[in-house]
TrEMBL record:
Domain CAAX prenyl protease 2/Lysostaphin resistance protein A-like: 129-223
Membrane spanning residue stretches: 125-142, 162-179
Organism expressing this protein natively: Triparma columacea
Annotated keywords: Membrane, Transmembrane, Transmembrane helix
GO molecular function, one term: endopeptidase activity
Domain of life the protein comes from: Eukaryota
A Pfam family annotated for this UniProt entry: Rce1-like
Protein known as: CAAX prenyl protease 2/Lysostaphin resistance protein A-like domain-containing protein
Example GO BP: CAAX-box protein maturation
Length: 317
């Protein structure tokens, strides 16, 4: 696979996403088991802790399923999804690493499925949809019970509801720190999960402490991340493989999401964000490299890649 050497001693995968060949056509139930185990431990641990501290006596925290609170959860969930779409389509290199990690995680769990368009409506898609829904709902129940039902409820015993939601959201963000990631990546992760946590906390507050709303919002968001990412990534990888070519050409087609054979500057920058992360060229460098180009094809894209190779070690701010 073609790689760029750009302000990093470690080669960077130009493709931006893993091929997933080892997990082709099957769900990785070992990873699924790990997810279920971790969420189960979170739920049991937080429930035990809250019972020791008597946070369960706080009058807000309860679950009562009814249409209004589910509608509220759906609205909040859609808002959080909208924020996620802004991150997904951003050209900022800091988001590029996060987006790439999301794609890798989803393919690692649900596997690479070749010939996706031929499988629309078939059993494999239903299998992934059901599993994604189960994982999403289980994660939502565990994390919302812990962070909103118990942590925010406990904080609200000594703080006003809004402050409690904000503090709970920050702690929710900190809980998603990955010790294997860089400080920069973790700061982005904390910020993103703090925002989503604030959204779920808003559903909790507006629902009068009814956990059904924030669980619904969280489950809807997670399901969209799992299933939509899996489906779109496989479709795009099918297209790139069908078009063929060397590593640079395959990468070009992977980021040609409109599948028209040309790319605009924003699409190229978003692709470079996936491939290079924080080492992505600065705006000034991109201005120089891009010049007066409009839409570009594979030949011009290759020229940009070659220019980036020549500039290796100079930028990426």
């Amino acid at each position: 696979m073609t790689r760029l050497e750009y302000k990093t001693e470690k080669d960077v995968d130009v493709g931006g996403i893993i091929e997933g060949e080892d997990d082709a056509g099957r769900v990785n139930f070992r990873v699924v088991k790990d997810i279920v185990r971790n969420q189960g431990l979170l739920y049991l641990g937080s429930t035990f802790t809250s019972s020791r501290w008597h946070w369960e006596n706080y009058p807000w925290s309860h679950i009562h399923i009814n249409p209004p609170v589910l509608y509220l959860g759906a609205i909040i969930g859609a808002g959080v999804i909208g924020t996620g779409k802004l991150v997904e389509t951003s050209t900022w290199g800091g988001f590029g690493d996060i987006n790439k990690s999301t794609v890798e995680m989803v393919l690692r769990v649900f596997g690479r499925e070749k010939g996706m368009e031929a499988r629309i409506g078939k059993g494999r898609m239903l299998e992934v949809a059901i599993l994604a829904a189960v994982i999403s709902l289980g994660t939502a129940i565990a994390e919302e019970t812990c962070f909103r039902g118990q942590l925010v409820s406990g904080l609200a015993m000594s703080h006003d509801p809004a402050t409690s939601v904000v503090l709970g959201a920050v702690l929710f963000g900190l809980a998603h720190v990955n010790l294997g990631s860089s400080l920069k990546d973790n700061m982005v992760t904390i910020g993103l999960h703090t925002m989503t946590g604030a959204g779920f906390g808003t559903a909790f507050i507006l629902g009068g402490g009814n956990l059904a709303g924030c669980i619904a919002a969280h489950a809807i968001y997670d399901f969209q991340v799992f299933y939509d990412t899996w489906y779109k990534t496989n479709i795009q990888m099918d297209y790139a493989e069908e078009m063929g070519g060397d590593g640079v050409e395959v990468f070009f087609h992977k980021i040609d999401t409109k599948r028209v054979g040309t790319l605009g500057r924003k699409e190229v920058e978003r692709g470079l964000g996936y491939a290079l992360g924080w080492a992505k060229p600065s705006k000034g460098e991109m201005d120089e490299i891009w010049g007066g180009r409009g839409k570009i094809g594979v030949i011009e894209f290759r020229a940009i890649v070659e220019e980036l190779k020549k500039r290796g070690g100079k930028g990426g701010r």
